[in-house]
Write a sequence for this structure.
């Protein structure tokens, strides 16, 4: 078994008993941890809210505010609900320990604490905290802060709900042939620049990018956080995306590098939103006819030679100053009825 | 009972093995500083029939006594803690004084240990 050699952390030791505080705290300092002390629960919460800590060792039986009350306060606080707590208690308090674990404590140590076990548990606790922080960081990076916040407040409720929103699909034209003609490093570099630009345009208009597959992406406007004028915001984002690609191409041309073109499809209406996947790997997504239509419209941009195609519901929600052009009827694959579609000429944003 | 038997040397030795002698001395100092205060709390809260404070003081004595190996003292404190939990402090006065006497022996044993 690997030795629990932990990265030093900032620990808060909460205990009304000075001998315990000494044993816990001083036993940890040789590990390089920074240890702060609180002699009751109220003081502990004040400290947790005032400065950053990585882990707390919590006594149950304390005056003013006991361990249960601290755990209760933590779970009610969105910023502290995941804060790792190791409960310390004597062997004859096993019922209390069970209650604490049920209330969200991560682990427990029996008193008198064995310093070796203490270090091992702290090491494991800090490692778990580090992984959790990393995971949250990843969620933020890949799912935008809206989704991350929604996840934090709603938890992983995997149930879906109906939302009114606009779905957008975008991808790079002729990407397959680009891939064949360029070096791997160039391709990844191209994709990273492309995604940076697209994210900026989409998030700048209140949308979230919820899927990236190869050179394609899916974005949602209006969920999980409601967005006024989500259809118009989606169209404005699409216009900005096209302009950014043009600027990007000027730069690429100057460097003698590959230029790209993108196609964007947008559809507006009701869709089903929720987290899909498993407890280990989940993503926020929207599904339904509206989403399918947006994907079909994106694919159809190739056929009509227009960079942006939108459905009628999106067009209806637009500000009159935005120019659209009717592109006739469109028979989407798998749909019984033809729908009216419109193109949005590039060069009219902001 | 001889003073030395008040302290379980194995507990102290284990504590020292996992930390160091200086640290053990510091722990014992804190114990000798805190316990008289908790004993005073026991007497005061008993007079006021303040069950919560009485229980916590007994709990504290139990907890730190175990750390320094004062196992007899720890079990006396555990009994008082249970009495407070059951809300039965009628016979507690005698027990408190008996615990206070035990503490004196423990402290004596530590003093002798330090100077011996």
């Amino acid at each position: 078994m690997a030795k629990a050699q932990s990265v030093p952390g900032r620990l808060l030791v909460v205990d009304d008993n000075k001998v315990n505080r000494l044993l816990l705290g001083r036993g940890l300092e040789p590990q390089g941890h920074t240890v702060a002390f609180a002699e009751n629960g109220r003081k502990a919460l004040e400290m947790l809210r005032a400065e950053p800590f990585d882990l707390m060792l919590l006594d149950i039986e304390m005056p003013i505010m006991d361990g249960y009350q601290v755990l209760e306060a933590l779970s009610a606080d969105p910023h502290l609900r995941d804060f790792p707590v190791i409960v310390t208690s004597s062997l004859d308090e096993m019922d209390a320990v069970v209650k604490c674990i049920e209330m969200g404590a991560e682990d427990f140590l029996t008193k008198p604490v064995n310093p070796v076990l203490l270090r091992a548990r702290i090491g494991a606790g800090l490692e778990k905290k580090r992984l959790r922080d990393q995971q949250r960081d990843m969620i933020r990076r890949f799912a935008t802060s809206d989704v991350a916040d929604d996840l934090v407040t709603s938890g992983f409720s995997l149930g879906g709900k109906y939302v009114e929103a606009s779905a957008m699909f975008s991808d790079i034209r002729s990407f397959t042939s680009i891939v064949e003609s360029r070096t791997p490093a160039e391709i990844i570099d191209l994709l990273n620049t492309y995604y940076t630009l697209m994210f900026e345009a989409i998030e700048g208009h209140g949308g979230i990018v919820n899927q990236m597959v190869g050179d394609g992406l899916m974005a949602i406007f209006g969920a999980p956080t409601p967005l006024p004028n989500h259809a118009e915001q989606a169209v404005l984002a699409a216009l900005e995306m096209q302009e950014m690609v043009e600027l990007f191409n000027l730069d690429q041309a100057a460097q003698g590098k590959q230029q790209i073109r993108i196609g964007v499809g947008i559809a507006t209406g009701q869709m089903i939103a929720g987290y899909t996947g498993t407890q280990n790997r989940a993503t926020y997504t929207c599904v339904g006819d509206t989403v399918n239509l947006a994907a079909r419209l994106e694919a159809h941009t190739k056929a009509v030679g227009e960079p942006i195609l939108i459905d009628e519901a999106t067009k209806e929600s637009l500000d009159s100053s935005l120019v659209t052009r009717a592109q006739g009827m469109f028979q989407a694959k798998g749909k019984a009825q033809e729908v009216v579609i419109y193109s949005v000429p590039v060069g009219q944003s902001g | 009972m001889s003073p030395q038997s008040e302290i379980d040397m194995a507990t102290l030795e284990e504590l020292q093995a996992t930390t160091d002698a200086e640290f053990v001395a510091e722990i014992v100092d804190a114990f000798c500083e805190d316990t008289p205060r908790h004993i005073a709390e026991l007497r005061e809260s008993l007079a006021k029939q303040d069950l919560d404070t009485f229980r916590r003081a007994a709990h504290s004595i139990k907890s730190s006594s175990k750390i320094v190996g004062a196992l007899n003292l720890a079990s006396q404190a555990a009994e008082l803690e249970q009495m407070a939990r059951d809300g039965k402090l009628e016979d507690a006065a005698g027990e408190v004084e008996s615990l206070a006497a035990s503490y004196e022996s423990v402290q004596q044993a530590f003093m002798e240990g330090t100077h011996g």
